[in-house]
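[Archive record]
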Amino acid sequence: MRALLRSLAGTAGMLLVASAVVFAMVRSAPGDPVDVQLGESGGISLSREDEDRIRAERLVELGLDRSLPEQYALWLARMVGGDWGTSYRTGQPVLDEMLDRLPASVALGTAGFAVAVVLACGLALLAGRRPDGPVDQVVRLATLATVAVPSFLLGTLALQVATGTTGYRIAGPASLDRIWLPALVLGIAVTPTMSRVLRASLVAERGRLYAVAALARGASPGRTLLRHVLRPAVGPVLILGGLAFASLVTGSIITEAVFTWPGVGLFAVDAIAAQDYPVVQAYVVLATALVVLVNRGVDLAGRLVDPRQDARAEAVA
């Protein structure tokens, strides 16, 4: 019970610090949303006096005439109370806008993560059967080449090929016939790191006494790898995979923009361009909260997969 309370207090503290950092970063950007809105007034010519008057009225209306600490305290109190503010750009409640788009981002992130898990496990098992062998060398070169390609370039190339060969629709609502391509790009982008970490963990576990004993009892290398070595080797990858999943759900801004996927990432891109403070702040806080919660979940899953972690923690305590 005490550990649970300590964990909850630590999570709340991290979110509070993250909210202050996000607020300071967003508000330190040059310009303000009123300048953007006046610039989008459709070319209507205003006198200097009218522009100053409209600007002052709009600042009061948005609450931007107050001091930054006062704005932060008010925003934080409303966030905790479930009022995430109103989008300057759409005029709709930010929470409703986020909830409308979050399922599309979760679906894309989950599909991309599934692709990454399948590819990473397959490549790691192939490479881990014979460390430094020909297959391991080929897998290493392939993963290094993939890491060198930026995700936006990979997405753009994949989009050009898919639209020319399969008639892939670049615009439209979130649907099954549109999700496979951005999910594949996301999965490929995450696969190299996960596969190399899992491969290294497999090789380390293969040298342990229990794996050597299994081989001495006549178990084949493949059976030893799958039945005895894979489970304890997954522990380090769980932490990496959890963080990768959180980043795929809320951090795939570039991929959502390239494929015009209607998720929270694309919504955040539009908000950044319009300096829509409530949306940008809510997006970053949401992403931070997801990363923290997934990290806590990964810690718990790691203890379930490898109970030796609890023993090591008790030994340290």
About this structure: The chain has a mean pLDDT of 82. The two ends are 17 Å apart (CA to CA). The chain has 14 helices and no strands.
